[in-house]
Amino acid sequence: MDEKLFAKDLSACPTVFCATRDDQAPLFTAEAVIDRDIKKVSLEDYKGKWVILFFYPSDFTFV
């Protein structure tokens, strides 16, 4: 493998964000399965409440 090419490709990648305790989640709206129905939810819907965000992209798709 050409190490110079590999290093160049890595430099184009965005910096990874790693959330830590007390970080605020960005506002978002997404589709979620709630009681077997697909509904739109927003972080604003839970303002002032404790929330656990459970996120696995493509893990629970219906494909």
Task: Report a brief summary of the structure.
The chain has 63 residues and is of the alpha+beta class. Helix content is 14%, strand content 19%. The chain starts with a helix and ends in a 21-residue tail after the last strand.
Give a verbal description of the structure:
This protein is α+β, with helices and mostly antiparallel strands and 63 residues long. It has a domain at 3-45. 14% of the residues lie in helices and 19% in strands. The chain has a two-stranded antiparallel sheet. The longest helix has 9 residues, at 3-11. The radius of gyration is 18 Å and the shape is globular. The mean pLDDT is 76.
Give the secondary structure arrangement, pairings included.
Elements: H1 3-11, E1 29-34, E2 37-42
Antiparallel strand pairs: 1-2
Give the key terms.
63 residues, single chain, two-stranded antiparallel sheet, alpha+beta
* Biggest sheet overview: 2 strands, antiparallel
Radius of gyration: 18 Å
Order of strands, widest sheet: 1-2
Beta-strand portion reads 15-25%
Secondary structure: number of strands: 2
Average pLDDT over all residues: 76
What global shape is seen? globular
Share of residues in helices: 10-25%
Give the count of helical stretches.
1
The H/E string reads HEE
Structural class: alpha+beta
